[in-house]
């Protein structure tokens, strides 16, 4: 498999005919890199004045004692931030000794870390035998920096990197496995396998060892691809698409180059479908369909996107204003940051942004849509079926989003603060994870249940030029005796009035149960007008029309801790059936207000 492997750093990283020195000299002065260069230089000047954050045993122990991750991770990721800045500046400005000296200091500090793993990933295990996401990423980063800087690094430091990679990654992979991520069907498989495989490609000189590593990581990457349906949708959301698929691409690129194209992981048919998911997931600007543990706003990675655009002609590139900056990734990962420089393509950057589009993904049961009204408003709509045992699962079958010019009036809370409890038995007590924090019905006071058996059945799915529709049987999502049927229809009319209509038809066996519609929003609701809920945010007003004789409306302000540990207020708007019957039909109509709206009448 590895016979004949061997390429220089310039062959691995730079375009044919351009030397490493030539590329970085061009990047230092070319207009297409000017914004990135200015940001990087400002980052370097700022970090020169800051000490290397300490990673103490006290910090490491906080997770075991309290379940909180943020204290240790803030310091850990700040070290990786320094690594990125000073390594990139040492390439961009090779004569700047002040940056080079700080790079050496940072490299030595990281090599001295007791473990490269996060405390949350080594609980109850031997850290020396563990490979987690961040230990794998760190080994990849150090290997790549050693390769790119070459003889500029002191020999003892390069040797230290090679020993650390062998001890912390290669040895545990071959000796202490199998590791849980080797058969995972989500981002862990791609990030861990891709990073360890890349480090081995760059730093392992023994052909037998490299063969053994590839024999482990290639099947793991196949498992990662198995987590996608043929439609290419990422059930973990666009953030984890960036993460997992990004590391798949970084490794696949190095592997193809090191083998002269003999091993081509892009040749797998599903990879093309996965590559095209990004352009569908953006609803308006950098706002995304943030189902699962996703952030609500995700700038795109320039390097990854431009690389894929060169490979797949139908891939579209978002508008350049939504590019990820140097500090956008709070984990400060080296691999995507480097490739934002190396893979940047000025011609692709000028492509003009994403076009209006609607697409249904039958395997994931996601309907994603963005359109521009005659008045120039950007509308985004997303809805999902699926099941309640997805990667980074939320109990959210039937969830939907509706936004105007980037303001989500029907919203998804996205990911919360990661703690031990967040991934434990109480996961669905968190509003952002449980169905109570989603725009789905409440039946007999109960939310949806977790588990693969609690799934939607798709009755209709259509992504059309003037109208999109998703009709779902939600009965199996609930464990409510007496619930005979529950069918949700979401019909998004994009032409003319741009109106979203939600219709739920619910039937009971025996005594009718209580039934409540819930809509999640970040906009404070005004309930004073009978038959209309008014939402105002971002200079816009949206209206939700309903039949006041059928439904009693109320609202509650709630707060959750977002992914960065910051409190975020949201509102649960509830419409309760006043007098449930054996069969009921409920309709909510969402439209943009203009001050002269006709009253909604139930049909």
UniProtKB/TrEMBL annotation:
Family annotation (InterPro entries): Chondroitin_lyas (IPR008929)
Q: Which domain of life is it from?
A: Bacteria
Instruction: Report the SUPFAM superfamilies cross-referenced here.
Output: Chondroitin AC/alginate lyase (SSF48230)
- What is the name listed in the Swiss-Prot or TrEMBL entry for this protein? Heparinase II/III-like protein
What species is this protein from?
Answer: Cohnella cellulosilytica
Q: What is the lineage of its organism?
A: Bacteria, Bacillati, Bacillota, Bacilli, Bacillales
């Amino acid at each position: 498999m590895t016979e004949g492997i061997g390429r220089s750093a310039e062959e691995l990283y730079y375009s044919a005919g351009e030397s490493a020195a030539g590329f970085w000299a061009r990047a230092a002065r070319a207009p297409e890199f000017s914004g990135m260069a200015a940001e990087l230089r400002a980052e370097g000047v700022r970090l020169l004045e800051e000490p290397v954050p300490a990673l103490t045993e006290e910090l490491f122990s906080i997770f075991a004692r309290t379940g909180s991750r943020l204290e240790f991770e803030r310091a850990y990721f700040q070290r990786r931030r320094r690594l990125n800045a000073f390594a990139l500046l040492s390439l961009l400005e090779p004569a700047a000794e002040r940056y080079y000296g700080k790079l050496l200091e940072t490299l030595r500090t990281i090599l001295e870390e007791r473990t490269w793993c996060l405390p949350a990933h080594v609980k109850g295990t031997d850290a020396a035998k563990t490979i987690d996401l961040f230990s794998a990423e760190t080994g990849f980063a150090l290997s790549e920096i050693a390769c790119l800087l070459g003889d500029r690094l002191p020999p003892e430091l390069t040797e230290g990197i090679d020993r650390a990679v062998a001890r912390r990654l290669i040895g545990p992979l071959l000796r202490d496995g199998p590791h849980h991520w080797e058969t995972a069907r989500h981002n862990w498989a791609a990030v861990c396998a891709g990073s360890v495989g890349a480090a081995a490609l760059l730093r392992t000189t023994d052909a037998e060892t490299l063969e053994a590593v590839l024999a482990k990581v290639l099947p793991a990457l196949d498992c990662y691809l198995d987590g996608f349906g043929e439609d290419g949708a990422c059930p973990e959301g666009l953030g984890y698409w960036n993460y997992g698929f990004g590391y798949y691409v970084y490794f696949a690129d190095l592997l193809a180059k090191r083998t002269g194209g003999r091993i081509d992981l892009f040749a797998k048919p599903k990879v093309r479908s996965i590559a095209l998911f990004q352009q569908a997931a953006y609803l308006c600007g950098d706002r995304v369909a943030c189902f699962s543990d996703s952030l609500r706003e995700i700038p795109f990675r320039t390097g990854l996107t431009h690389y894929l655009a060169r490979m797949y002609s139908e891939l579209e590139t978002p508008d350049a204003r939504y590019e990820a900056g140097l500090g956008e990734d709070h984990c400060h990962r080296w691999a995507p940051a480097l490739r934002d420089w190396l893979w940047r393509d000025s011609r692709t950057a000028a492509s003009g942004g994403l076009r209006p589009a609607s697409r249904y993904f039958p395997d994931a049961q996601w309907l994603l849509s963005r359109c521009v009204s005659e008045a120039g408003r950007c509308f985004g709509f997303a809805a999902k079926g699926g099941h309640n045992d997805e990667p980074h699962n939320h109990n959210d079958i039937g969830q939907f989003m509706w936004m105007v010019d980037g303001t989500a009036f029907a919203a998804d809370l996205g990911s919360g603060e990661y703690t031990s409890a967040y991934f434990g038995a109480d996961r669905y007590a968190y509003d952002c994870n449980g169905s109570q924090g989603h725009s789905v019905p409440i039946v007999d006071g109960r939310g949806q249940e977790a588990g693969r058996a609690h799934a939607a059945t798709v009755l209709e799915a259509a992504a059309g030029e003037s109208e999109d529709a998703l009709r779902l049987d939600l009965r199996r999502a609930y464990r409510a005796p007496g619930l005979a049927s529950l069918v949700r229809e979401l019909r998004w009319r994009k032409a003319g009035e741009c109106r979203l209509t939600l219709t739920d038809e619910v039937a009971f066996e025996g005594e009718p149960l209580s039934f409540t519609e819930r809509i999640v929003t970040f906009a404070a609701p005004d309930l004073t007008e009978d038959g209309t809920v008014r939402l105002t945010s971002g200079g816009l007003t949206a209206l939700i029309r309903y039949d006041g004789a059928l439904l009693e409306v109320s609202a509650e302000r709630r707060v959750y801790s977002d992914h960065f540990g910051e409190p975020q207020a949201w509102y649960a708007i509830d419409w309760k059936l006043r007098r449930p019957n054996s069969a009921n039909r409920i309709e909510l109509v969402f439209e943009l207000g203009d001050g002269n709206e006709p009253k909604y009448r139930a049909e």
